[in-house]
Amino acid sequence: MKKIIVFGSTGSIGSSALDLARRHKDLFTVTGLQANSSKEELQALASEFNCPFTLTSQDGIEGMARLLDKANADIVVNGIAGAAGLLPSKLVVERGIDLALANKETVVMAWPLIKSLADKNGAKIIPVDSEHSAIFNLIHFCKKTNIEEIVITASGGPFRNYSREQLEKACLSDALKHPTWKMGKKITVDSASLANKGLEVIEARRLFDTNVKNISVVVHPESLIHSLVRTSDGILYAQISEPDMRHPIMGALCWPEYVQSGLEKFSLAGKSMSFFEPRRDDFPLLGLAEKAADKGGSYTIAFNAADEIAAHAFIDEKIKFLDIAKIVQATMEKDWSQEPRDFDDVFEADKNARAIAEAAL
Predict the structure, then answer these.
(1) How confident is the model at residue 194 (pLDDT cuts 50, 70, 90)?
(2) C-alpha 114 chain-centroid distance
(3) Which of 45, 69, 159, 189 has the greatest number of beta carbons closer than 10 A?
């Protein structure tokens, strides 16, 4: 029986994790729940799972620390979106608790610091993003020394078939019509702009300690293959499943065992799959993220911060869709070569990048 804490318990990742706990009461017991602000929903979940410890974001980082100390969990699912999820990850690995990680900013903003803390305290970090979960498992099976390339799949988002002229006129309601996944507004906009795929390149480069030149992106609209690896003999190996985030969450919660999930099993019969090169000129955020990943320093922090400012400006209908990339590019033209020495440096770089992006608006 694994004791789990869910951060972001009312969001899409948290809800999926709790659905698995609901289905597998013989495997998991929920000892802690955190949510942004929905007190009523949080209390309903606490009652359902007989969970003794809960808190909202209003309780602050100190409240999270107390929750972790009291709830005595084996693993924490971090489904908090945005930079707000970074310090919770730090608190988890400082305590030597395993981390099922869905928060991109933990890796994009502060991976060297987080990884060092996890190693020091014996905490395992298991990725929950469908792409990185796939890569994590494929590397486990194929062994890292045999792998020469990581191939990340992208749905292409709602604008995959849009012409340049259509992109210039694209509005928020268009961007939110994701063809495969149901997600929050920010990540859906990032999917439309390929910023999300750029962030995943940064994550893969860091999580799996490889070079950007060894990572490629292919557009796969059906979202059935979640990523691939190419071994040194040239063969590609893929992880295939229905597009359901409960698969990678279950994998993270049960790692290193593979357990019957009770979820829909994938069948090849009647399926078709297609693959395309990403249109980099029309979706420049992918290339900007790759440059950030390659340069290191604080460039990945600047990319993430500027994209967050620009994407929310688009959501608030202050700018056009193609302006998102312009704001990120303007921000990244500054010097971000300094490597953060500690978490204060991380947040200082994040603050500075946000200020520059705001000015670019």
Answers:
(1) very high
(2) 15
(3) 189
Phi, then psi, of 236 in degrees rounded to 5: -95, 135
Q: Tell me, what DSSP letter sits at residue 36? A: S
**Pairing state of beta strands 147-154 and 225-231?**
antiparallel
**Residue matched to tokens 């302006």:** 323
Order the strands of the 2-7 sheet from edge to edge: 53-56, 28-35, 2-7, 75-78, 98-101, 125-127
**Other Cβ atoms within 10 Å of 216 Cβ, number:** 15
pTM for the whole structure: 0.93
Angle between helices 86-94 and 104-121 (to 10 degrees): 10
Distance of alpha carbon 40 from its chain centroid, rounded?
A: 27
Identify the H or E element spanning 149. Answer: strand 147-154
Kindly report, residue by residue over 142-154, the tens digit of the pLDDT: 999 999 999 999 9
Smallest Cα–Cα separation from 128: which of 8, 288, 221, 231? 8
Q: What are phi and psi of 359, to 5 degrees?
A: -65, -35
Q: What angle do CA 309, 176, 198 make, to 5 degrees?
A: 55
Mean pLDDT of 106-134: 97
With a pLDDT cut of 70, the percent of the chain lying above it is 99
